[in-house]
User: What shape does this take?
Amino acid sequence: MSWSIKVPASTSNLGAGFDSVGLALNLYLQLTVTPADTWKFVAKSDYLQGIPEGTENLVYKIAKQVGDRFEFPYLPSCRVEMTSNIPLARGLGSSATATIAGIELANQILGLDLTEEEKLQVATDIEGHPDNVAPSLMGGCVIGHYDQEVNWIKIPVEDVTFLAVIPSYELKTENARAVLPREFSYERSVHASSVANVSVAAICMKDWSLLGKMMKKDLFHQPYRKGLIRDYDTIQNFLDEQAYGVFLSGAGPTMIAIADPEHVERNIGTWKEKFPQFDWLPLQVENEGVQTTTLGSVST
Assistant: This one.
């Protein structure tokens, strides 16, 4: 038996929803898994060139954690062909897709028959927060809270474009976390939380203009991280006039504008000419989440 596992990318935070809000996007990590004599990971796309080919691969490490969690002594060996159109270290959830792919790989080859809730619990235990793994697993926009147990709500999103403006350089999550404050005053915490509360309500009501206003008021991470991103203010000020709002995707450095699809289609060529140092990628929300397909028996 062999399998295809397709995991969508994600963006997280959407402004003030720090570590708790994320949504799935139509970029994908895809695995084709076939039983084999030894573990072998084969990169089939440019973004994955140079990945570890054996048991040092992140997908294997996650699958092994899952196996250990359910007391399986070993993982049956597989050949795993991997393709991805998700830029690495750009704030588009590339590591979270590997986490979900590893969980689903273990689920299939060990016959665990995990529920969606169980997969989410495992993923969040591994990652420490649900913002990227939850939408990559379930699709749509997911608002979650984690304190040993995961509590979450999924909101489908349609008819709006998430325009990713992607710099040519990477920004590691650990570097982006290092610039964040260690604590807030009570008063500042209340104010920051009120911004997040209205942001979540705006998402639920599909009020993208209100969400855009709240994104500008975020106090949790964007004011500290924007200094790590060249041209952040220039791009934000420019796109604020073209879109409902602009936010830093995850830890960055990608910026995302929430915009009307027709407006993006009419103007993106001009925007690319004005700022050629960025990749401009109009994306849609993937509402399905991870998709696993059985490909059939494999002759030996």
In short: The chain has two domains: 2-156+286-296, 161-283.
